[in-house]
Every structure is written in C-alpha cells, then in structure tokens.
# Entry
Amino acid sequence: MTSANLEEQYRAAVRWYPPRWRRRFGEAMVGVLLDVADSEGRTAPATGELVDLRGRGLAEWINVVCPKDVRALVASISVGVAAAFTLTYFFFVSWPQGFDRGMVPDNVPLFGPFLNAAPLFIAPVLLMFVAAVAGSRVLTHAIGVVALLGVVSAALLRSATGNWNGPGSTTVVFVALLVIFASIGDPRRRLTSLAAFGFVGIASALFGFLRLPTARPWETQFVGDAGWWSIALAPWVLASAGGIVLVSVLVLLAQRRTVLAAAIAVAWLPWAAAATVTLKVFAGEEVDSFVMAIGSVVLCLFALQQVRTRTIRRGAGDAPTRA
# Structure
C-alpha cells in the first residue's frame, strides 16, 4: 500500500500544471503514479520523479501561453532570420573587404582581420541555421548556447576596447533575442527557415546597398554599426515592416490561420524591440517608439489569444490548428 504522504507529494507536483490540464488529467495522472509506485513497492517518489513532473508542468504552462505549433514556427522563422541578419551584417559592418579600404576610418579598433567582434556570434548563428536545415534540433539548440556566449563575449570586448563600430547594444540584444526565439521550439521546419532566410537576407542586402537616407545608393561607403540601424535598416524601414506585419497578422486571423498569424506576431518581437530603440534614438520619435512597443506586444497577445480560443472551441486542447 502506498502512503498518504506519497499521494500528497504527487498531488503537490501535479499542482504545477495549468488548471485546465489538471481538471482533465490530474486525477488520472495521480492514480497512475500511485499504481506504479505500489507495483514497485515504493513509499516515496523515485529519484528525480518530482523534478520531472514539475518540469513537465512548467512546459504545459508554456504551451498555454504559446502553443507548441506556434513555437515551432517561431523557432524556424527566427533561425532563418538570425542567419540572414548576421550574414548581411557581417558583409556591411564587420568585413573590411566589403568597402573601399580608404572609406574605413583608421581609428576603428580591429578584431583580428575584422572591424568588430561580431564574428564571435555570427559564426555560431550560421551554424545554428545549418543544423536546423539539416534537421538536428538538439545540435541547433546546443549551438544556440554557444551563440549566446558569443553575443556576451562580443559585447564585453566592445566595452573593453571602446570600439565605436560595435557591435552596439541594439545589435547584440537583437541577435540574442533571435537566438532565444530560435530555441523556444522545434526549428526544423526547413522551408519556413529557408523562406525567412531568403526574404530577410535579400531585403537587408537591398537596403544596405540602397542606403536611402544618404541619397547615395550602390556606393561602398562605410556606415558602421550605428549606420546599419540608422541608414540601412533605418527607423522608417522597421516602422514600415511593422505595418506590413500588422496587416498580415490581421488578414491571417480573418482567414482563421491562427497558428501562422501568432507565429508571425511573436517572431516580429525582436524586430519590434530594435524598431522601438531606433525610432527613439535615431529618429527622435518617442511617441512612435512607444506605439511600436505597445502595439507589437498587444498584437502578439491578441494573436496568441485567438489560437487558444480557436483550440478551446474545437474541443481538443492539443489538436493543431490550421497553419
């Protein structure tokens, strides 16, 4: 016979699960756990059992906030976006061969052959993308940890050397968010990652070459880290992209493609963070910056709520909605 203390420990662990999950499966789960313990002659939880139960409970809470299907799309989008962004950033900001050498100021502290320490995170981010496209989730997430360490290292080196070419705070926070978002789900939706890589890579390179605020397109003029956010991916570019994301999400929601709509809204958040900063710092538009921040968060929460509402209406808590 199992003890009342054991049952209470199991019930306490099950309380880590969301209320709706507990109402549907809680009693059955406690019963199974007690039956297994009784068959094994145990009067105490197995080693690591309670930790595992609590971890699974937290995972269910994550699914409540952002369902698994949404997180998989967000991860696949983010790993492609991260690779495209870092690759274009490398050619336009970090690689001296990308410019006429005379255009690069002499007072840029070099990091080996590069103009800043960004390759510390660019290389692992690109390897993350390769691993995701190759279909290895574990390797993608493992390299993601290395990429985050690279982001921290690059930021510390920039602070130590005083390199005004960065990578600046906007860049390192943006890349860190992309890596984190690429790690919140299964990033192995190959076509999604490739589409995100192609779209963001082409768009970033195009704006990098056009340099519209300078009215001097197609020149190999050095712009640096700050110029990347103020000239290439200028505040008006990100604000316009935010408008496109808003319309796209609303159209997808109207078509009841809630998973895809929510994934786009969530995957937009790192861009929204960058836009919030650049609108305030480079454009001096504090009101627009505030609207960008609040609007992006509200859009994300609204889209995720639509996913949950549609799931509940279909009466299947873990049934995938149409993507």
The chain has three domains: 4-36+47-64, 68-223, 234-323.
